[in-house]
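Our consortium's second objective concerns turning raw sequence data into structural hypotheses that experimental partners can test. To show how far this objective has progressed, the report includes one record in full. It was chosen at random from the queue rather than selected for favorable results. The single chain below, 255 residues long, was entered without modification.
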Amino acid sequence: MVLFELVVLLVVILLFASIRVLNQWEKGVVLTLGKYSGTLEPGLNLVIPILQSVIRVDMRIRTLDIPKQEAMTKDNVPVAINAVVYFKVEKAEDAVLKIQDYQYAVAQYAQTALRDVVGNSSMDEVLTDRDKIAEEIRGLVDKETNPWGVDIASIKMQDIELPEDLKRIMSRQASAEREKRANITKSEGDKLAAVNLAAAAKIMESSPAALQLRALQTIDGLGPSPSNTVVLFPMELLELVKTWTGNAGKKDKKD
């Protein structure tokens, strides 16, 4: 009776020891006596105790920070860049059997690829074409890590640091560019205003009433102030002076 109870107890212990529950985002690589014998899916699984071991692999997308890298651009400008790698394991057995530490390997390849791509790009390209450069880095890293069952989802470049003296030069350049655009806009406005003033002058020349109305508007715009002295001449007096001057000129020609 005691022997039977011991056997039952041993069976129960072995049964519990053989149970492996994997989460939805996990897969299990089974090694039987040290050799790969299969991959377990999420859920309840049974293995042979002592003879088989299970290595859990997280299949979710993971993030890996690339520390700041010092690189020299194609036009000999030193820059410091850091980035983030988004990757996930596609084949659990390859990630376990073909590489010792796939996360560390991804980080090293990403750092090397970042320096290589930046070294083949100009400073302007690094600053303006971040997405293009990041995609080029992703392609290089993904090509190397694909045999390990690792897929590089994307790489995002974060901070790009430039030397302080270069920052000051770029700031002055941007300021000069803004001033140039402002001068161009002002000159275009002056040109348009001159065209409008010329058109208005022609209208007022052909319409004395319009000229008088404009004069009244100008006077009204001066505002009530003791420092403003306004002398008004009737338009009829101006016309009389103009006629008299014209007649005097004709008389001089006759003489």
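The partners drew two points from this record. The radius of gyration is 43 Å. DSSP finds eight helices and eight strands in the chain. Both points have been shared with the crystallography group to help prioritize constructs.
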